[in-house]
Amino acid sequence: MSTEITERQQEIINVSLALITESGIQSLTIKNLAKRIGFAESAIYRHYENKIQILLAILDFFKRNTEQLFSNQLNSNENALVRIEKLFVTHFRKFANTPSLVAVIFSEEIFRNEKELSTKVAEIMNLNIASLTTIIKDGQQKGEIRNDIEASHLATMILGSLRMFVKQWSMSNYSFNLEKKGNELSNSIKTLLVP
Amino acid sequence: MSTEITERQQEIINVSLALITESGIQSLTIKNLAKRIGFAESAIYRHYENKIQILLAILDFFKRNTEQLFSNQLNSNENALVRIEKLFVTHFRKFANTPSLVAVIFSEEIFRNEKELSTKVAEIMNLNIASLTTIIKDGQQKGEIRNDIEASHLATMILGSLRMFVKQWSMSNYSFNLEKKGNELSNSIKTLLVP
DNA sequence: CTTTGTAGTGTGAATATTCACTCACATAAA
DNA sequence: TTTATGTGAGTGAATATTCACACTACAAAG
User: Fold this and answer.
1) Contact residues for A70 (Cβ-Cβ < 8 A; gap 6+)
2) CA closest to B125 among chain A residues
3) Which of B69, B79, B72, B62 is nearest to B145 (CA)?
4) How many angstroms separate the CA atoms of B162 and B172, rounded?
C-alpha cells in the first residue's frame, strides 16, 4: 500500500533529487519541480498530497539507501574491521553515485520545522548509530576491535568521521575522488580500531 | 571600521541568535526580528543593509567564538593530547552556554544559496581543520601522538567526532549534560591518539 | 540665547516576489 | 459512466525591501 509508488511519483522524487543536487534543498519548490517535469504546478497535487509528503518520500529514499548499507554489514559474519571498512566503501560509492543524498544529509536543519520530518531524520540517524554500535560490540567481543573504548564512543567517532569527510568533499565542490580518498581514510580508521 | 558595531547592531545579532536557538534558522525573519526588538520592520534597515549582512554578522560571531578556541590551543605549548582535550572541553562548554551556535553549525545548507555566505562557512571550517592539523603534526613530531596515521585524517576524525556528538546532543533535545558526557568522549579520543 | 542645519533613527504603508495550495473545468482511457 | 490525470487562473500568506515622512539630539552659526 503505502510503499507502492506510481511512475509519476517516482519521477517526482527523481526530479526532486536532481534539483537538490544541482542547487540545494532550497531550490526544491513546487514551481521548479513542475517546470522540470513539464507539468503544471497543480498537477503535482494529483500525485502527492502536499510538499511534506514529497519530503517524506525523499527521506524514505535516503533511509532505504543508507539503511541497506548498514544492515548488509549487520548480517555479515566477516571480521568486524572488514565490515566497518565495507561500510565506508559502500557509503562513499553511494554518495559518489548519488550526490543528492549528500544534500539530504546536511539538510536536517530545514526539516526541523515540521515535526513529522524531524522525527524521521532522528529515527534514521539513531537506527544507523545503533547498527554500527552492534557491529562494534560484536567485534570487541571477538577480539577484532580494541576493547578499551566504549562501543558507543567508537560509533560516534566513526560516523562522525564519515560525515565530516563527505562534508569536506561537498565543500570542495566534489573536487577530489571520494571513493579513492575515502579508502585511505577508511584504512586510517581501521588502524585506530585494531586492538 | 568594519569591525565596529553599534549597540543596536549588537542587539539585532543577539535577538537573531535567540530566535535561532528557539526555533531554528528558519524563524530568523525580518518580521520576527523586528517584533522581538519592539521595532518596525523597516527600522532594521537603518542598521543593516539587508538580511545577508545580518547573517554574515552571525557567522562572524560564530567565527570569532570558535576560532578563539582553536588559536588558544594553537599557541599553547602543552602536550598535544592536553591541547586537544582542552579543545573538546572548551567547545562543549561554549555550545552548552550558547546553544545558538549549534544551530548555526548545522545550518550550512541554508547558507548554500548565497555565495558570500557559503564562502564564509567554508572559510571557517577550513581554518579550524588547518589549526587542528597543525596541533596534531606538532604532537606527532614530539612523540605525543601516534605517528602511524596521517595528521589530516586524525583532524577529520576529531572534528567529525566533535560535531557528531553535538548533533546527537541537539537531536536528543539537549537531554544530556554535554560537558560531562563530552569529557568521556574526549577521554576516549585521547586513548585513541596516544602512541 | 536662539535659530538653523544635519545626522541618526523610527514609522506605516506599499511594493514585488515567491511560495504552497485550491478549484472548476477538460480530456482520455477503461 | 467513472476514474485518473492534467490545466490555467487565482488565492492568501509570507517574505525582504523601499520610501516619504516625522521626530530628536546636537552642534554650528547668527
Assistant:
1) A87, A127, A128, A131, A132
2) A168
3) B79
4) 16
Residue A1 distance to chain B (closest CA, Å): 31
Per CATH, the number for A55-193 is 1.10.357.10
For the stretch B102-119, pLDDT in tens is: 988 888 877 888 889 999
CA distance B107 to chain A (A): 6
Contact list in A for residue B160 (CB cut-off 8 A) is: 157, 160-165
Widest CA span in chain A: 60
Model confidence band, residue B2 (pLDDT cutoffs 50, 70, 90): very low
pLDDT tens per residue, range B149-186: 999 999 999 999 999 999 999 999 899 999 999 999 99
| Confidence (pLDDT) at B51 | 97
Q: Which of residues 35-94 of A touch strand C (CB under 7 A)?
A: 41-42, 45, 50-52
| A77-123 pLDDT tens trace | 999 999 999 999 999 999 999 998 998 888 887 788 888 999 999 99
DSSP, res A47: T
Which residues, 6+ apart, have CB-to-CB distance to B51 below 8 Å? B30
B41 touches chain A (CB under 8 A): no
CB nearest to B163's CB, from A26, A112, A160: A160
The model's confidence at residue A3, banded by pLDDT at 50, 70 and 90, is low
Identify the CATH number of the domain defined by range B52-193: 1.10.357.10
